[in-house]
Amino acid sequence: MNKHVAGLTIVELMIAMAVIAVVVSLGVPHLPGVVGNNRLTAQVNTLSNHLAYARSEAVKSGTPVTVTSNNGAIWQDGWTVWVDTNNSGLMDAGEELRIGEAFGAASVLTPDNGTDFITYNGTGALAGNPVTFTLCNTSSPYGKQLKITGSGRGRLADSKYKCP
User: Fold this and answer.
1) Residue 58 and residue 151: Cα distance in Å, rounded?
2) CA dist 160 → 4, 40, 141 (Å)
3) Considering only the top CATH level, what class is 32-162?
4) Measured between alpha carbons, how far is 148 from 135 in angstroms, rounded to an integer?
5) What residues does each domain of the chain span?
6) CA atoms within 13 A on the CB side of 18
7) Which residues have C-beta within 8 Å of that of residue 91, sequence separation ≥ 6?
8) Tens-digit pLDDT profile for residues 91-104
9) If you compute the radius of gyration of the chain from its CA atoms, what whole number of angstroms results?
10) What's the pTM value of the predicted model, to 2 decimals?
């Protein structure tokens, strides 16, 4: 009776571990860039979703809806979406619709025109000039740009933006 034992020899196991080590060593250096790009994508999508929400609320209610930065033109510190129900031009109690959370110290979100607010009129168009938001992160040399047209539509720029 011939017994055959199935399994790996130590040499086969060492070769398999060496192959795995090579594959991992090729992939790990790219991991921070991938994580940074995913973070940028999530952050720009958050802003885009809040702006689209503000626009839809303006159309739905037929009244202006404003998105205001929580810290001047430093948008990465968060923002507030609110509807001016009493036409005072100021956010009063009960007018807040949604709050955008701060992105953190590694991200910089800047509008090209330095504005600290965006207002959509009752038709969903911008009440002011078009604006382009640029989002950069310290973990990536490239950033994202979100362009808001005069009609109020937002779109992500097609090409990678080289951060300064």
Assistant:
1) 13
2) 58, 12, 10
3) alpha beta
4) 14
5) 32-162
6) 6
7) 66, 68, 80, 82, 84
8) 888 888 999 999 98
9) 24
10) 0.79
